[in-house]
Amino acid sequence: MIKGVLVFNNTGKPRLTAFYEHLPIAEQQRVIRETFSVVSKRPNSLCNFVEDPSIWGDDCKIIYRHYATLYFVVFADDSESELAVLDLIQVFVESLDRCFENVCELDLIFHYEKAMYVLDEIIMGGMVLETNQQKIAQSLQAQGKIDGDRILSRARV
Q1: In angstroms, what is the C-alpha Rg of the chain?
Q2: Whether the Cβ atoms of residue 20 and residue 4 lie closer than 8 Å to each other
Q3: I want to staple 126 with a disulfide (CB 3.0 to 4.6 A). Which of 18, 20, 56, 86 is the partner?
Q4: What is the pLDDT of residue 133?
Q5: Pairing between strand 2-9 and 14-19?
């Protein structure tokens, strides 16, 4: 099960957060700080999996990818495959790229609700719903037509 998804920039400012397990706000902030501290100090030559029980607990793995100025981090329990979660991060980033045409930090800041909608199409309640980018793009287009939103409706299928 997915416990949480974080996207933060190179300075540690969270740009998108989704926690699927209840954590008090102070605990969420601690998790974000400690995760950034651990992930940002790792050289690119190391793998993208971290097991640090002090951050979320014994049964939680941190899987992340660093793209340009953004870190995409997923917290998952032991039932999730690390490689599958890395693929899930790739699907999320490519879906954002389809929606925003080369997603950047400013897209996540100014269109937060659209980025969350993309994430909700992929993960809901900690369960992976969809990984097919074609179906995700179709869903985004349909939602954009309903809302009259030109950003979502132009998602490339």
Answers
A1: 15
A2: yes
A3: 20
A4: 86
A5: antiparallel
pLDDT in tens, 28-53: 999 999 999 999 999 888 889 998 88
Please count the other Cβ atoms lying within 10 Å of the Cβ belonging to residue 88.
22
Evaluate whether 128 touches 88 at the Cβ level (below 8 Å): yes
**Which two structure tokens, joined as six digits, stand for 111?**
């269109």
- The backbone torsions φ and ψ at residue 63, rounded to the nearest 5 degrees and listed phi first, read -120, 130
What distance in Å separates the CA atoms of residue 146 and residue 30, rounded to the nearest whole number?
A: 38
Length of the chain: 157
The pLDDT of residue 137 is above 60: yes
